[in-house]
């Protein structure tokens, strides 16, 4: 049997889908799984032991008809038993539509009209179900449907599979002391904790940094974060910047060997969850119940305002993140590391 998985982005979503792929391989060791993913997230999947073939998709293909047509021809040249839409958006369902798979599978309450492109509409999932468990549920229901020819009720997976090998590469820098990672950048401006709060946090953790270094991490595209992190590394002892200096396999290596992460809701948080690291996560517009950490040791902080969670990318007040004080974070950090 050969399956095609469609999960394009974002990094955190791709990471949260990996336990479902592990479940598919556990239940069906013989199955061959191909995966359509955005090129920037492909490093996690290329040569992955659970994935037979990685089809790299570029977002700009939607604006380049000739290149998009070439990609679709390549997609249609492959013979799949089923294609499973783990993204559940119009862009992913459009690719599902063009595959020649016999079964095109997704939840009936996927968004942006995507169920219109499925010929197997699974019963709606609970929108408050954590994303990892939702993807596990989709994998279970796919197995049930393809095995019995009809959907049957399945339990939400209680245990999250964690034996998921990831590509890792040792970065060129050395880490002379134990270290914590600080994840301060995100695409949504509403998820970002104010830089002034991060600096206050550094002032309050001076004693901890006698035995524990702090490293900011982030993407090359996060220029403002890079400048801020470098300023903090110059201003405070035991503080360093790795912003823009790590590719994905190097990031895996660095997170895997850390003492834990202080983070906002973003991709590296989910990578830390997959690697089962201690996590202190700060949540504003999004829901910890839906997309929070899923490691064995984690603490989530929210301001618990009436407007939360709003899932908005823009906000005039940003009060949900501003209201989380550095003093709260320091207190919970001590609880996390007890």
CATH class of the largest domain: Alpha Beta
Say which CATH homologous superfamily of the largest domain is assigned. Glycogen Phosphorylase B
Mean pLDDT, all residues: 94
Order of helices and strands: EHEEHEHEEHEHEHEHEHEHEHH
Overall 3D geometry?
globular
- Structure class: alpha/beta
Query: What's the number of extended β-strand segments?
Result: 12
Task: Count the DSSP helices.
Answer: 11
- Predict the CATH topology of the largest domain: Rossmann fold
Main sheet specs: 6 strands, parallel
The spatial strand order of the largest sheet comes to: 3-2-1-4-5-6
Element layout with pairings:
Elements: E1 2-6, H1 11-27, E2 32-38, E3 53-57, H2 65-76, E4 82-85, H3 90-98, E5 103-107, E6 120-122, H4 131-148, E7 179-183, H5 195-204, E8 213-217, H6 223-235, E9 239-241, H7 248-256, E10 261-264, H8 267-274, E11 279-283, H9 288-291, E12 298-302, H10 319-322, H11 326-336
Overview of this protein structure:
The protein contains eleven helices and twelve strands. The protein has helices spanning about 10-25, 65-75, 90-100, 130-150, 195-205, 225-235, 250-255, 265-275, 290, 320, 325-335, and strands spanning about 1-5, 30-40, 55, 80-85, 105, 120, 180-185, 215, 240, 260-265, 280-285, 300. The chain folds into two domains: about 1-150, Glycogen Phosphorylase B (Rossmann fold, 3-Layer(aba) Sandwich), CATH 3.40.50.2000; about 180-335, Rossmann fold, CATH 3.40.50. The strands form two sheets. Strands 3-2-1-4-5-6 form a six-stranded parallel beta sheet, sandwiched between helices. It has a six-stranded parallel beta sheet with strand order 9-8-7-10-11-12, with helices on both faces. Helix 1 (about 10-25) runs parallel beside helix 4 (about 130-150), helix 1 (about 10-25) runs parallel beside helix 8 and helix 5 (about 195-205) packs across helix 11 (about 325-335). By secondary structure, the chain is an alpha/beta fold. The chain starts with a strand and ends with a helix. Helix 6 (about 225-235) links the parallel strand 8 and strand 9. Helix content is about 35%, strand content about 15%.
């Amino acid at each position: 049997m050969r399956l095609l998985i469609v999960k394009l982005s974002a990094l955190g979503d791709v990471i949260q889908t990996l336990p479902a792929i592990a479940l598919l391989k556990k239940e069906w060791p013989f199955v061959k799984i191909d995966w359509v993913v955005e090129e920037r997230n492909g490093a996690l999947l290329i040569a992955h032991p659970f994935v037979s073939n990685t089809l790299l998709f570029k977002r700009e293909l939607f604006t380049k008809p000739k290149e998009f047509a070439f990609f679709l021809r390549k997609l249609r040249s492959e013979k799949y038993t089923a294609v499973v839409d783990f993204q559940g958006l119009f862009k992913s369902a459009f690719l599902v539509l063009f595959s020649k798979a016999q079964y095109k599978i997704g939840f009936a309450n996927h968004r942006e009209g995507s169920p219109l492109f499925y010929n197997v509409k699974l019963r709606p999932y609970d929108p408050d179900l954590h994303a990892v468990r939702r993807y596990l549920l989709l994998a279970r229901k796919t197995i049930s449907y393809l095995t019995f020819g009809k959907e049957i009720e399945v339990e939400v997976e209680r245990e999250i599979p964690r034996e998921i090998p990831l590509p890792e590469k040792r970065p060129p820098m050395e880490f002379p002391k134990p270290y914590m990672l600080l994840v301060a950048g995100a695409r949504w401006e509403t998820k970002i904790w104010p830089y002034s709060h991060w600096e206050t946090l550094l002032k309050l953790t001076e004693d901890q940094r006698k035995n524990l270094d702090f490293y900011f991490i982030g993407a090359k595209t996060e220029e403002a974060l890079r400048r801020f992190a470098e300023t903090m590394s110059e201003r405070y002892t035991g503080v360093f910047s790795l912003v823009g200096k790590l590719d994905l396999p190097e990031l895996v290596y660095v997170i895997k060997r850390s003492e834990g992460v202080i983070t906002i809701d973003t991709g590296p948080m989910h990578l830390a969850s997959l690697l089962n690291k201690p996590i202190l996560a700060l949540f504003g517009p999004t829901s910890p119940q839906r997309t929070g950490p899923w490691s064995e040791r984690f603490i989530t902080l929210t301001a618990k305002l009436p407007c939360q969670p709003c899932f908005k990318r823009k906000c005039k007040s940003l009060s949900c993140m501003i209201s989380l004080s550095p003093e709260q974070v320091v207190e919970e950090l001590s609880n996390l590391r007890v």
